[in-house]
Amino acid sequence: MRASKGDKLVQHGRVVGQHDHVVEVVEVLGPEGNPPYRVRAENGHETIMSPGPDCQVKHEEKHPQR
Prior knowledge:
Domain DUF1918: 1-57
Radius of gyration: 13 Å
Helix content: under 10%
Structural class: mainly beta
Pfam families: DUF1918
Protein name: DUF1918 domain-containing protein
Number of domains: 1
Shape: globular
Region (Disordered): 44-66
């Protein structure tokens, strides 16, 4: 798993009715985009995370500049 600053990590709910948890990568602490990552939740809480197999990286969309 590789991520960059600004990417989103989506941790999927493990049981029926549990919502996905989405956080933003604010710092990559591992080499070459590998975990661990410092992440920030929507409520502003920051933590260090090494995502497991139930996580997915949503890469930040790069828009061409004019």
